[in-house]
Amino acid sequence: MRIILLGPPGAGKGTQAVRLVERLGTPQLSTGDMLRAAVAAGTPVGLKAKAVMDRGELVSDDIVVGIIADRIEEQDAKSGFILDGFPRTVAQAEAFDQMLADKGLKLDAVIEFKVNETELVERIVKRAQETEARGEPVRKDDNPEVFKTRLDAYRNQTAPLSAYYERTGMLKTVDGMKPIDDVTQAIREILGR
């Protein structure tokens, strides 16, 4: 299955992606990891990305989609993949859909985690406090101010993807505020697995 998980930071996408990887046996693809791997491997698209990053610029949508196009050709992704954190914009979604179509592939599901933003901020604050209480280092992005900035960026750049995928008929939603096991069950029902 080819799946995209959408939702703001802290909504539980990463947790559910791990569960999907275990259940479906398909890899979770991280654009950051793929980018670093392509650069390290010296692939043609990796070399393009390296040149851009060496200039201190952001890697273009075309390069990111090219890296994903290469990655989904690898054996472990032949039967599907889970994307969390990509696409981030409608332009990326359009380029990604075109790339899939060119390969004769299509998405099976786009699952959006719906959340209450106020409760989500409270969840992140609580997670940071619990982490600190265990004596573990708190993730930088669990700082409430940093988190609110990331949430604003999501709202401005990525939230329009909901309407895009709704127009394509692909969008399904789950209540990301429910307990983890309930969210897992809701995703299972959406996927029919």
Automatic annotation (TrEMBL):
Catalyzed reactions per annotation: AMP + ATP = 2 ADP
EC number: 2.7.4.3
Positions of AMP binding: T31, R36, E57, L58, V59, G85, F86, P87, R88, Q92, R139, R150
Classification via Pfam families: ADK
Keyword field: ATP-binding, Cytoplasm, Kinase, Nucleotide biosynthesis, Nucleotide-binding, Transferase
Principal location: cytoplasm
Residues holding ATP: G10, A11, G12, K13, G14, T15, R127, K178
Gene Ontology terms for molecular function: AMP kinase activity
Family matches, as InterPro entries: Adenyl_kin_sub, Adenylat/UMP-CMP_kin, Adenylat_kinase_CS, P-loop_NTPase
Associated pathway: Purine metabolism; AMP biosynthesis via salvage pathway; AMP from ADP: step 1/1
Localization annotation: Cytoplasm
Coiled coil segments of this chain: none
Region annotation (NMP) ranges: 30-59
Domain description: Consists of three domains, a large central CORE domain and two small peripheral domains, NMPbind and LID, which undergo movements during catalysis. The LID domain closes over the site of phosphoryl transfer upon ATP binding. Assembling and dissambling the active center during each catalytic cycle provides an effective means to prevent ATP hydrolysis.
PANTHER family: NUCLEOTIDE KINASE (PTHR23359)
Function of the molecule: Catalyzes the reversible transfer of the terminal phosphate group between ATP and AMP. Plays an important role in cellular energy homeostasis and in adenine nucleotide metabolism.
Known partners and oligomeric status: Monomer.
Family as reported in the entry's similarity comment: Belongs to the adenylate kinase family.
UniProt protein name: Adenylate kinase
Gene (name only): adk
